[in-house]
Amino acid sequence: MDGNGRWASSRGLERSHGHREGSKAVRRIVRAARRMGVDALTMYAFSEQNWQRPLAEVSALMELLTEFLVTEREELMDNGIRLRAIGRRQELPSPVRHVLEALETDTEQLDEMTLTLALSYGGQEEITDACRGIAERVRAGDLECSAIDEALLEAAIPSVDVGAVDLLIRTGGEQRISNFLLWGAAYAELVFTDRLWPDMHAEDLHEAVAVYQTRERRFGRVPEADDASEPTDPEPVRRAGE
Length: 242
Ligand code: IPE
Ligand code: MG
Known about the structure:
binds 3-methylbut-3-enyl trihydrogen diphosphate, alpha/beta, about 15% strand, Undecaprenyl pyrophosphate synthetase, two-stranded parallel ribbon
């Protein structure tokens, strides 16, 4: 969700106005995704690196987040939306953590859609934390190094609990991943739009999904039409000298 600051500056407003407008876009996109039947929506609300922004901006973002968690509670519950957070939550101010965790508990059983908020999140940090946990299991004698494979590492990465990323949308014109879902986005289809986040509407989500539907996902394999593993009319094998 990028472009809140630019949305505000271009109107001569303070950045926090952009974030406020951005939170309205969050509501719109959550609603639109739920209506489309999206199973899992993950939103990059606050990165580990965002802590380095001016204190006033960080405070404004934390306030907006708390407000969102309070005002959206009913709509999330009425629509069967489970809310959860990924990221280093211990770094969040305790009042934020308090409302967040209450909502996580109260929506735990809901399964129409999972809305994941990435808060104090970084993809590299998430993989690092997973590795530390695995190292501790090895040190405790519960795990052999030889048992560490991609599946074991993946199981320790919370952002992939909802599955690998199918479609990753970045707004605001930049074409980079900025430490988002690094593990889960290995085969994600990327869609970049110049639209600033506060200007995002349901139609823009529909458009991104339409673009996604034109993509051919191969996961490193060849297109199905070229798959010769079961040829219908095989060429005879020629041996040397024949
Ligand atoms: C929103 O956009 C990102 C959040 C931290 C919520 P920005 O605040 O990065 O907006 P720009 O890039 O300055 O326009
Ligand atoms: Mg930005």
